[in-house]
Amino acid sequence: WVNRFLARFYDPRLSFTRSCDGRIVAMAHIVPLVTELGRTAYLYAVVVDELYRGRGFAREVISEALACAGQGWGGAFDAVCVIPATDELKSLYAKFGFADEQFEMSFGTNGDDSLGTEGFVGRHSTFDLGDDSATDNRAMVLRLAE
């Protein structure tokens, strides 16, 4: 699964990492999507190695990703969405301005998973970036354009 994700969506301009002790300890990725919100930066795979949590690495990679989204990529992003893995993470994302809009993300339904001419993935990619449950695919939203 990781290899499939990297082969289809990895772009070094949209991937953010932090290293410590000679290895990557935190990361985040932006997956460009087109949603009802317009061009959407889906903040995906935000993770920090357990041994390095509590040192601010998550805040750093999220901040860098949001700065990138604010500058646009292949055109300006209209919004950033994130699906927090736990309820506790909602407070972290709220500090960055994300609203818990319960925006329904749609993954793995139909269409293709190729990148479009502008680098944005179609709304209904066959590559499932969410959870099997539609109720778990509810995102917090940071609107960059109104």
Explain the overall architecture.
The protein has 3 helices and 6 strands; from the N terminus they run αβββαβαββ. The chain has helices at residues 2-9, 57-71, 87-94, and strands at residues 15-20, 23-35, 38-48, 79-82, 99-104, 138-143. It has a 6-stranded mixed β-sheet, covered by helices on one side. It is globular, with a radius of gyration of 15 Å.
How would a textbook summarize the main sheet? Answer: 6 strands, mixed
Q: Give helix and strand order, one letter per element, not per position.
A: HEEEHEHEE
Chain-averaged pLDDT: 81
Integer-rounded radius of gyration: 15 Å
Number of strands: 6
Instruction: Classify the beta-strand content into a percent band.
Output: 25-35%
The percent of residues in helical segments reads 10-25%
- Amino-to-carboxy terminus distance: 35 Å
Shape assignment? globular
SS-derived structural category: alpha+beta
Poorly predicted regions: 109-124
Number of distinct helices = 3
Numbering strands along the chain, what is their spatial order in the largest sheet? 1-2-3-4-6-5
